[in-house]
Every structure is written in structure tokens, then in C-alpha cells.
Design brief:
Helix content is about 35%, strand content about 20%. The chain is of the alpha/beta class. The longest helix is centred in the last third of the chain and has 14 residues.
Length: about 260
Amino acid sequence: MTLTEIRAALDSRGLRPLKQLGQNFLHDQNLAAWLAEKAVEGLNPGALVVEIGPGLGALTSILLEKNLRLIALEKDRGLSNYLRDRFRSEIASGKLDLREGDALQLLPKLEASPAVICGNLPYYISTPLLMEGLKLSGPPARLFFLMQKEVGLRLASVSGNKTYGALSVLIQAAYDVSLVRTLPGSVFYPPPDVESVAVQLTPVASPPVQPSERKSFAAVVQRGFSQRRKKLSNLLPVEDERRAEHLTPAEWIALWRGIEKKN
């Protein structure tokens, strides 16, 4: 959708971008097409794709052109009503399953494991949504999100960096992280004050932490990073004198395994 089309769509419904929901609508059509193509690249026909926060349908309209099963999760009622009208025929034919509600609550209720979860994420929900994704019981989906650049850099950060934290460890234990493309605020309406980044998270081939183990692993990692200036020996039942940010994800897994054996 162009900037003019976005404004007209909002005006026609008496809607305004809600700051509390972090609504910034992508208006660069070429970029929207490129992002949608990248998100579902290589998927088999009929694969299940979940879009978080479709908004006015910039990515949705392109995803619907693919031979896929699409579920869209939208929290804003006004936008949900708009999407139901815009994609009335696609919903009626079963090509689009539009569900209204909070993605953090709807994701665990999915009837099947998606091949891809994608979307233009509101900044406030990025970290909680990633953590929720790690809790899903099925095989991990490929994730493709637009998010605040700061969060994307944290996901890809390596041990020893200031941006390296519990989120970095937990994500990298399950996914290969790729920062695909930086997006300026000018491609969104209204333009955010910070840059965004397209991030692709690809599940590692042989995940070292199984779905049933993720809660235990996360508890240890989050405890280790809870007081960054303290040595791990002061926070966890280990004799390791290093601080949390100095361990690689592989070392965190080994440390967690050692704790599990003692219990």
C-alpha cells in the first residue's frame, strides 16, 4: 500500500495509528513485496504461515498470492474489521484465517506447527513474542520479522559484547540469526524515531535444547544474567568464576547440562 492509500484507508474508518500498540505501517510497496518473498522463500505448497500484526495488509496481500495456508493475528479491532472487508473473498474461500486477539495468547493455541512466523512487529512486543515462540511445543518455525534495530542487534550479538544477553543466548541456542536488511523510519507511517531491521531466524539443524527442556534452560540463563556484574558462582550452583556475558551459547548449554545432572 502506498502512503496515500494507507492514509485513505485509516481515514475511511476513522482510525489513527495507535502509539500504545506500536503501529507503524509499511508504505514502500517494492520493499513489502521483497520482504514477503524473503519470508516464505523455499516453502512447499500448502505450508502454514502465520503473520503477526497484519495491520492494513501490506504483507498479507502479497502472501495471499502464494500457494500457502495463511493465518493472520491482529490485536486491533478496527484493523481487524478493515481486514475482514478488504479480504472478504479470501476469508470466505479459506485462503486467509484472520484471528483477532493478542498474538502472545493466540500463538500457543495454534492447531498446527507453522513453517514460518512473520510480520512487522510492534517494538514493544518483539522480545516477549520471541520468548513465546521458544515455548511452542512443535518443531521451531522459521521466523522472519521487522523489528527495532536495537533488538535485532541483541539477537545477533556475540559473547563479550554489551548487547549480548539472555535473549541472545536463548535465541542462538535454537536459531541461526541473520540480519537481512536495515530499514529507515521513512518507509513507515508514521515514521518511527529509530531504524528497523529485517531479521531471519532459521532453526538449527539439530537443536541442542529440546522443546521440553527450553523452560529449564531459560530459567538458568535468565538467572545467570540477572546481575551482570556478579560472577556465575554467586548466582548459580557452579564453580565458574566468569560473568554471564563471557559464555558462548554452547558454553551456556554445557553449564546448564551440568546443573541438570546435579538435580
